[in-house]
Amino acid sequence: QTVPVGSYAANAFGLMDVHGNVWEWCLDAWDGSNNYPASAVVDPYVSLGPDRAIRGGSWYIDASDCRSAIRLNVPPSNTNIDVGFRVVCAPVRP
């Protein structure tokens, strides 16, 4: 099951509960691969198809898949109980 945010210590970036609570919606278009490319990606939000990437795993899958590098494709209409999003507040750089 899910746990309240802040139940675990923050990672090196100051983010809490990054892995395994719920899959994290990403704006990235799905590129047809479960793996990130070896080279840098300038703008992953391109029209490759209707699906978007979710990442990070959830409480509903095996622990070995609860990591930030794991990702799957889902349509934007997905309403599974183990998919959510993360709000991160950061300063705006001029």
Descriptors for this entry?
single chain; 0% helix; 94 residues; four-stranded mixed β-sheet; globular; mainly beta
Describe the structure.
- The protein has 94 residues and is mostly beta strands.
- The chain is built from no helices and four strands.
- It is globular.
- The model has no long low-confidence stretch (mean pLDDT 76).
Number of helices, where a helix is a run of at least 4 consecutive DSSP H or I residues: 0
**What oligomeric arrangement do these chains adopt?**
single chain
Structural class: mainly beta
Strand percentage lies at 15-25%
* Radius of gyration over all CA atoms, rounded: 14 Å
- The end-to-end distance, rounded to whole angstroms, is 41 Å
Average pLDDT, all residues: 76
Strand order of the largest sheet: 3-2-1-4
SSE order and pairing:
Blueprint: E1 23-29, E2 52-55, E3 71-74, E4 83-84
